[in-house]
Structure to design on (331 residues):
């Protein structure tokens, strides 16, 4: 692929990862808020941000077909609501680093699933980067297991199970989203991001209304007015920040990367989210990563570098050799 598209795509994926890593911090900063409040609060904010941004983009939004809106609704339900609902639960049960490590399996899982379908790269060229990323994930996970306090095993298991559902949801989302964008090259990434936000809004509004009714409309020390909880100002600020930066801008950057890069490469680049989440998580803890975690991070970075290099322009000699090999194989 063209070097310019590769560089731009990687930078877009990096921007998305930096913004998505922020979503791992909110559950740790708001441990007294249930996952349902965090999930529906974040995506209610995303929907409201999209509603404002839809005004200058209304002409292109009107051009979307019914099939586009149905697809946006599916992506919103699985990639937004289900994903973050279970991820928030996993973070609160087992902590930011564990959840970020389990979500960190996404680069391998998505790359394998995408390449299995598209065959965009021979497995022998894809395998080294996936092995390095897998080894990095194993190192960080081993370090987190060593930090478990006695009796913390059940919480760790619950957090792992909840996060596994989030992994499944976000394995489906980027592959489906990338295929839709590539099948509709005239679809603007900005318009598509706003459409997903608008599709998310009614789902999040219904979910938030149900949450408020469940907690009771009367203000209390725990539920707060309209379910905003004991720290309404901090909660509202974090939800708005995630709605704008993590949801809208992060999704926009990722959609642009998805239009430029093969899905088996963008799958690997989700590791930027893992690295960002680890950095934010350790900053929130006020700690530095240990040697095992540091080695895992180095392996993750090395795996990303190898993955990007594998998709880069090949030297003329290598291309000639590959062509001769294909010709020989055809006889």
């Amino acid at each position: 692929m063209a070097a310019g598209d590769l560089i731009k795509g990687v930078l877009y994926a990096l921007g998305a990862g930096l913004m998505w890593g922020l979503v791992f911090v909110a559950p740790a900063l708001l441990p007294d808020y249930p996952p349902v409040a965090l999930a529906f609060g974040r995506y209610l904010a995303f929907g409201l941000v999209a509603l404002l941004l839809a005004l200058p983009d209304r002409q292109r939004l009107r051009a979307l077909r019914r099939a586009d809106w149905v697809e946006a609704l599916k992506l919103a339900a699985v990639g937004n609501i289900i994903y973050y609902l279970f991820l928030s639960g996993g973070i609160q049960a087992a902590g930011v680093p564990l959840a970020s490590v389990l979500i960190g399996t996404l680069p391998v899982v998505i790359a394998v699933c995408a390449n299995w379908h598209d065959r965009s790269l021979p497995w022998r060229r894809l395998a080294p980067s996936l092995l390095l990323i897998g080894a990095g994930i194993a190192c960080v996970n081993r370090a987190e297991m060593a930090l478990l306090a006695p009796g913390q095993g059940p919480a760790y298991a619950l957090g792992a199970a909840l996060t596994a559902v989030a992994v499944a949801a976000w394995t489906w989302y980027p592959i489906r989203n990338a295929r839709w964008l590539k099948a509709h090259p005239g679809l603007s990434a900005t318009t598509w991001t706003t459409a997903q936000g608008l599709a998310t809004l009614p789902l999040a509004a219904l979910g938030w209304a149900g949450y408020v009714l469940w907690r009771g409309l009367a203000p209390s020390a725990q539920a707060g007015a309209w379910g905003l909880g004991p720290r309404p100002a901090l909660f509202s600020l974090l939800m708005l920040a995630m709605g704008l930066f993590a949801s809208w801008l992060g999704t926009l950057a990722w959609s642009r990367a998805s239009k430029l890069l093969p899905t088996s490469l963008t799958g690997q680049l989700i590791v930027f989210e893992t690295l960002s989440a680890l950095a934010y998580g350790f900053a929130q803890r006020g700690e530095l990563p240990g040697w095992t975690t540091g080695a895992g991070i180095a392996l993750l970075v090395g795996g990303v570098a190898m993955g990007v290099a594998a998709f880069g322009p090949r030297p003329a000699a290598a291309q000639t050799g590959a062509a001769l090999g294909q010709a020989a194989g055809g006889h």
Observations:
- The chain has one domain: 3-311.
- Residues 37 and 211 are 7 Å apart (CA to CA).
- Residues 3-311 form one domain.
- Confidence is low (pLDDT under 50) at residues 316-331.
